[in-house]
Specification:
Layout: H1 8-14, H2 16-24, E1 28-29, E2 34-35, H3 38-41, H4 44-48, E3 52-57, H5 59-76, E4 80-84, H6 85-90, E5 99-105, H7 111-122, E6 126-131, H8 137-141, E7 144-147, H9 160-180, H10 185-206, H11 209-219, E8 224-229, H12 234-248, E9 251-256, E10 273-278, H13 284-296, E11 300-306, H14 311-315, E12 318-322, H15 330-348
Parallel strand pairs: 3-4, 3-5, 5-6, 6-7, 8-9, 8-10, 10-11, 11-12
Antiparallel strand pairs: 1-2
Helix pairs in contact: 2-9, 2-10, 5-9, 5-12, 9-10, 10-15, 11-15, 12-15
Bound molecules: 5-amino-5-deoxy-1-O-phosphono-D-mannitol.
The site of 5-amino-5-deoxy-1-O-phosphono-D-mannitol has 16 residues, from helix 5.
Length: 366
């Protein structure tokens, strides 16, 4: 069942080149340079004319929503809001006709997300579901949708569902951007080519798992952890922190790296590991100075870096290396080392990584 792996979590992390290929199958066609997403195409005018897009989700799915906000605003120039489903459902949100609500959920059964959908639907919004579990309640409640096709996820901590969500959301943004002509034909072709390479690049990161295990040994006794990233990698910092918390019970916080100086930097001393998601992108120089700020205060720095990066390698205590990827798709690759690191730290601490205490796979109560 676990396919020779010690835990479902590890199996599911290693499933990702395959689950992402499944997610792209029948959609991305590199021969004809086409992207097929029936659920979007059938309602293209709803998307291209949307006044705004509201994304609702919880936990890891909410983090995927944050990445999607950056993707959709960049490629489609449609304003996007990302909300915790639990907050959206209880406040009195301004939502109605002309709004598109994207609900993201692995299980398709999360109670808060379900009720948020019902509320927006009653108010006249168009509901699009990005769901993993086929035939689930959220899939049924939505007007349209796109399945993530990641396969069953058994580990309580979400891993392969997250990367499949990012893939579907990227495909949506690319497709809508092309329709709206807010991206050029050349950009469209480049994104398709980049998408096609993702499963191989994820595989390349998985091949480094032994070296990530070594990194884990240095930090398994940490009491706290800070995860920092900017731009597309900011939600990856949040996701990295959530995963570590769930799996290792180490207190971890994620922040946009620039927010550090507005408070969290007070925590930094020689005992605090700070994990930077620092792949090559438009924010690279900025993140380098953030790393210097931590080193100047004797913090321990672990960095997820792009292949060939010698600058950060020279500054950090430990690095985890990933292939270069266009920044829009970077989270798909940069999240992988954080999943593996959490897994090994949890195992080193002797914990039940597949079923962390107090957590359930799907939260069907509010
Ligand atoms: O099934 P959903 O995607 O709606 O679940 C949302 C969250 O409950 C879920 O992502 C949770 O945060 C996971 N334990 C994260 O690993």
């Amino acid at each position: 069942e676990k396919g020779g792996f010690d835990h479902f979590m590890l199996k599911e992390i290693f499933d990702q080149p395959g689950s992402l290929t499944d997610c792209l199958r029948g959609r991305l066609d590199m021969e004809n340079l086409t992207l097929t997403l029936a659920g979007v195409e059938e309602h293209m005018s709803v998307f291209s004319q949307a006044k705004r897009i509201i994304i609702v989700a919880c936990g890891t799915s909410w983090h995927a929503g944050l990445v999607a906000e950056y993707m959709i605003e960049t490629l489609c120039r449609i304003p996007v809001e990302v909300e915790y489903a639990s907050e959206f459902r209880y406040r009195n949100p301004v939502v109605g006709e002309g709004d598109v609500l994207i609900a993201i959920s692995q299980s398709g059964e999360t109670a808060d997300t379900l009720v948020a959908i019902e509320k927006a639907k009653e108010a006249g919004a168009f509901i699009f579901g990005v769901v993993n579990a086929v035939g689930s309640s959220i899939a049924r409640l939505s007007h349209s949708g796109a399945y993530t096709h990641a396969g069953p996820e058994i580990g309580v901590a979400s891993t392969k569902a997250f990367t499949a969500q990012l893939t579907v959301l990227a495909m949506m943004a690319i497709k809508i951007g092309r329709e709206k002509k807010t991206i050029t034909e050349a950009e469209y072709n480049r994104y398709l080519a980049e998408l096609a390479l993702i499963p191989e690049k994820v595989k390349a990161v998985l091949e480094t798992h032994e070296s990530i295990k070594e990194v884990a040994k240095h930090y398994a006794d940490a009491r706290d952890f800070l995860f920092l990233g900017r731009g597309y990698n900011f939600p990856v910092a949040l996701e990295g922190a959530l995963k570590l918390k769930e799996i290792s019970y180490i207190h971890a916080e994620g922040y946009p790296a620039a927010e550090m100086k507005h408070g969290p930097i007070a925590l930094v001393d020689e005992n605090l590991p700070v994990l930077f998601i620092a792949t090559k992108d438009a924010y690279y120089e900025k993140i380098v100075s953030n790393i210097q700020e931590i080193k100047a205060r004797k913090g321990m720095v672990i960095a997820v870096i792009s292949e060939g990066d010698t600058l950060i390698r020279g500054m950090a205590d430990h690095v985890m290396v990933v292939p270069e990827v266009d920044e829009l798709l970077a989270p798909l690759v940069s999240v992988i080392p954080t999943q593996i690191l959490s897994y090994y730290i949890g195992v080193l601490r002797g914990l039940d990584v597949d079923k962390p205490r107090n957590l359930a796979k799907s939260v069907t109560v509010e």
